[in-house]
Each structure stands twice: as structure tokens, then as C-alpha cells.
Amino acid sequence: MKRTRHILILGAGVMQQPALQLARQQGWHVVAADGNPKAAARGLADRFVNIDLRDREALAAFAREYQAESGLDAVFTAGTDFSTSVAFIAEALGLPGIDYQTALQATDKQRMRTLFMQKGIPSVRFRVLRRVPPRHEAETIAEQVGFPVVVKPVDNMGARGVRCVHSGADLSAAVEAALQFSASGTVLVEEFIDGAEFSIDAVIWRGRVSVCGVADRDIRFAPFFIEVGHCMPSELHEHAQRQLTAVFTRAVAALGIRNGAAKGDVFMSRRGPVIGEIAARLSGGYMSGWTYPLSSGAEPTLAAMQVAMGEAPQALAPRWHKVSVERAVISIPGVIRTLHGFEAAERVPNVRAVFRRCHAGETVVFPRNNVEKCGNVISCADTRDAAFEAALTGIRAIEVDLIPGDRQTIEFLFGADSEPAVAAYPSLLSIAEDYRGDLNELFRTAADGGSGVLTAVDNSERDWNGRTLQATLAALQPAARTIELDSLQLQRRFQALILRAVGKGGLQGGRFLFDTIKEIPEWRERLPG
Question: Model-level pTM?
Fold first, then answer.
């Protein structure tokens, strides 16, 4: 009788769901470990153990005991920070996989960039800091790299603590913020690459790199680097894609990844492809588990687990060619009062998955990294336009209503920070203080097709949900009719407030303002005059 195989998967969250499901479908006995005792996908495992994934010794001790009792054939992760823990266990137990030192090189950005420099792999100039420097020292370091610079922790993922800095005046604060996200207390100050960014996944068997898709990343909201979505496959022309994957393959080889998986962030700059970073695992962000399988019919997660079992990968040949798009649900800051539309988003034609990552009563922020989002919508269609339209229609179906009058929402909408990149409609925001037209006419013309203020702003401008300004104003028109103000002075004040709220926060910002005026008696004191 053939023996059942056993696999230990590190992580039992949403990003590990495909691995857990695919392993079960193979008839393998699946053990999942996670530091969160309520991990979302723990029920998909045959056995769950609550172990901190940073505690390599505890994980190895459990794996060794399990191997002695039941046999253990593989250890695996995807979409986590813990490829070093996987390598540590595999090396300790003699299981297939990369060695621990290789995993460290693919996790610590300082080691990685140093190695790339030694091997001639196109990467970024950088300097290393382990403390917040005095301003004059910070400026000297940054000038050696060349402004603008990117400040980031060496040992974190998801753009946590990452910020673009254009002058020495802001550098120390950025370093201090990045240090809070570094377990080793180490920060990089590195060259900013001006160019489109792409994600690449790959499965590696005996040194042969099989690329599993190149995705276009949509990065916004400077000075942060927030991925609002991605599209698989990339629309970059074939020759340029070959250049990207060639440099990526060289970087994987330089790191010493011969059997396993790799995920790369690669820029196409004016000087050609530049490696942002490589991880010794498959990606998170819904790429390896959702958008590539949907667009191609191939399963890189299964292939990578086969490699972890010591077998040649079998699930990599594309079976079809479609387009899959992922978009994030983004909220302005505040406390959630109600959530609507996740079920409606699931019913949108060509939407294939909807993920909810927030609940009523929770505090939400405008994302400063890639884990501070409220949800995600994934679509798949035969054409790029159809896939994008489905994903954005799904996003627009979801409404995150905030508790009115909340100070953090007011500060975001009306505070001194008016960074145009962190605004729903920057061109509307730019005229909010000076507009003197009739507000009722503004809403009427928006509903009727647009004129007035709409001719003074960029009508092609869309918010982060793909909604035009005209559509937003038309959606707000019924609520605008219910606002009654008893003086011309209040009407003028409200006019400036609504233009600012919509310019900064889009439809959600406008609704928050209306709810605050209608439900908070002291709104005149809370809102700016």
C-alpha cells in the first residue's frame, strides 16, 4: 500500500489557502502552523499547530517530533516572511529545499543587494543605517545615493515602513519610521528607480527557472508605495518581458536558489531592467494563488510543493490564455459603521473572488503599506478591458461607511496635509478653496452630463475605485438635497467643505461629510470654518 505523504505548511492565512487546498487534493496529510490561533484557513489542514513562525527552533522541534511519529516529506510556505524558517527546518531535518544561508540572502535586503553588486546583477545603489542619524549625516548619506531616495527596513515585506524621500529635511523621520518595522534594527537608504514595476513568480528545479507569469503592478500614493492592484499577464511587449525575466533568472541563480520558488519585483528603467528584490518563495498579493492560475490554468503553488517534496514540477504548462485583474478595496481613515456590497461584488460577471479584510467597529487607515487594505476583488475575462471593468465594478459595489464626526476622518479630509497623490481627485482639491459657483448647480450638472466646475478640472481623472468625478457627484446629489443651511455664510462654508471632502476622499468623503452635518449637532465646531 502506498504511504500517505505529509507536508508542513507555514502559515494558515488567506495567502496560504491555495497551498492547503491543493495539498489536500493530492491526498497528502497537511499540517499547518501559524502564530495566530484563529488563522483564517486553519480549517483546511488535517492538523493545526499554534507556533510563532518566527520561532525557528520551536518549529524545527515540532517538525522533528512529527517526522519521528508520522514521517514528514516536505515543508513549504507562500506569501509569508518566513522562507528562512522553511529553510531552517528543511536543513535540520534533511528535507528538500534551499539551504538556510541562501534563504537569509533572499530575505535580508542588505545581503541581497551586496551579493547582486558583487555578481553584476542590475540593482540599486544603497547605504545602510542602524540608527536615526543627525540631519547633516543623513543628508550626506542620501546625497551619496542621490535624491530622491527610498527608505526601507531590510527585513520586512508588504512595503511596511517604506517611504520615498526627496530632501534631507524628511530623511531622519523616514529612517525612524522604517526602524520600527525592522526586527534587526537595520534600514536601507537606496536609489529610487523611475520606471514601471513588475512582479514575477518562478518555480526552480535543479537550477532551471520556470517563470510563472509577469504581472503589471499599479503603484500609487507617494511618498508611500501602495499596490492598488495588478494585472496578469503584463501588457509589456514581448521583447521587454524577455529582458525582465532574463535579469530575474540571473538574480535567482546569483542567490543560489536551485530547488524551490522565487518571487521578484523588477523595474523597467531607462537603463533597462533593475532588480528591486527577490524572495525565496512564491508571492503573496493574490498572484501565485489566484491571478496566474486564473489567467493560465497552471498552478505554480502545486508545482512549488512538488519541488518541496523532491519531485520535478508537473503543473506549470498553461492551459489557456486569459486576463486576470486584482484590485484593492481602499478606505479613508475612520471607524467603520457599516459595510455593504461584498455579496453584490461577488455577483458581478467575471468576478472570480472577493476578500473582506475589515469589519464594522474596526478602525481603518488610508494605506501606508500593502497590508492596510479593506479587501480585494479578483476578476478573470478573455480581454484586458473586460477584466479591468469587472474588477472595478466589483470594487465600486463595496461601500465602507464611517462613523460621522470622527476626528481622524476630519483630519484626513480637512487637515493641513494636502499631498495630491493621496487624494481621490487632485484637480478638484486644487480649486476647492476658490470655487464660487452655485453648489446646487454643480450637483445638477453632474447628474445631467457635466458642466460648470467639471470644465475646470480633469474630467479624465478617476479615483482609486475607477469612479469619475461626474459619477461621484451624481451619486451624492440625493444626499445633497437633504442638507438645509440657514445662511449664505453657512452655504459658502459647506461648499468649500464638500469640494474638499470629495477632492480628498471621493464618494466616501462626501458621504462622511453629509452624515456628519445631519447627525452631529455640533458639526460647526468639529469641522473647519
Answer: 0.93
